[in-house]
Specification:
By secondary structure, this protein is α/β, with parallel strands linked by helices. It has 9 helices and 11 strands.
């Protein structure tokens, strides 16, 4: 079955390229069944400027999503959610249809260190705060991510291994090394026990950072072995990428042991076969 649902999307209210209306119209043109909006939550730090919603824009965001839901009723199910950052106030997640919980930065000694902005920023953070050791850096990331369910009350865990975004060809650290895999597995086990749904996120592919989705196949196999669940998302920052890479994501899910993937509806999660 082809998955025609995506709940990880961004608009001009944060760092996306299109309006709410343009994203909804694009979803209808693709024959999608469900579209979930998940703007980046307001972040009380200057470094969030340009990619996180402002507090002032948040109400307008919800109103625009509500208007689109009414306009496209009967043609497209629209959900209003949030990609709630670990370092945002959990209060932003109140009274929404769903929450994606994500970690986008570490804050050693109060210093804002993005894990996914540009590689130079990551290298600088590792050198200044982790003695040049990428394994310590990744361990700190996974330790923080392990608390994402308690912190945000999320329904979905966003881009589990985004800390590998700039590690193509293992140019910064070996992802097979126990110093990397150990903290990742410990985090994974805790989140599976919390009932988290993990996204197979193709956003890095559409934006040219990766050739495969998050998370890595070995992580997906571990999620499957532990009895966890996955959902396909494209982390779309434009209407043109709403379903980008979904066929590849479904094939990867099947190859890693999943018979089905989750889809989120107004009534909750449902299971869709991957074949």
């Amino acid at each position: 079955m082809k998955v025609l649902s995506n709940v990880h999307t961004h608009t001009l209210y944060c760092d996306g390229e299109n309006t709410v209306e343009e994203m909804a119209a694009g979803a209808v043109s693709l024959g999608m069944t469900t579209l979930g909006f998940s703007g980046h939550s307001p972040l009380d730090h200057p470094a969030g400027s340009g990619w996180a919603m402002t507090p002032e824009a948040f109400q307008s965001y919800k109103e625009d999503v509500a208007a689109a839901r009414e306009k496209y009723a009967g043609r497209l199910e629209i959900l209003c959610g949030l990609e709630l950052d670990y370092d945002s106030s959990p209060e932003w997640g109140r009274d929404l249809d769903f929450i994606i919980g994500s970690v986008h930065q570490l804050m050693p000694d109060g210093d804002f260190c993005s894990v996914d902005n540009v590689p130079e920023e990551v290298d600088d953070a590792v050198n200044r705060h982790f003695g040049g050791c990428y394994y310590s850096y990744c361990a700190a990331y996974y330790d923080k991510l392990s608390g994402i369910c308690e912190r945000t009350g999320c329904d979905i865990v966003g881009h589990f291994d985004i800390v590998t975004k700039f590690n193509g060809e293992f140019r910064r650290f070996d992802e097979n090394d126990p110093r990397y895999r150990g903290p990742a597995i410990n985090c994974l086990r805790k989140l599976v026990n919390n009932g988290a749904v993990f996204e197979i996120n193709t956003g890095g592919i559409s934006r040219g950072y990766r050739t495969t989705p998050y998370p890595a196949p070995w992580i997906l196999r571990e999620i499957s072995r532990l009895g966890g669940s996955v959902i396909l998302t494209s982390d779309a920052h434009s209407a043109a990428t709403l379903l980008h890479g979904f066929d590849k994501g479904a094939d990867l899910a099947a190859a890693c042991g999943f018979d089905s993937v989750k889809a989120l509806t107004a009534k909750g999660f449902i299971d869709l076969p991957v074949r």
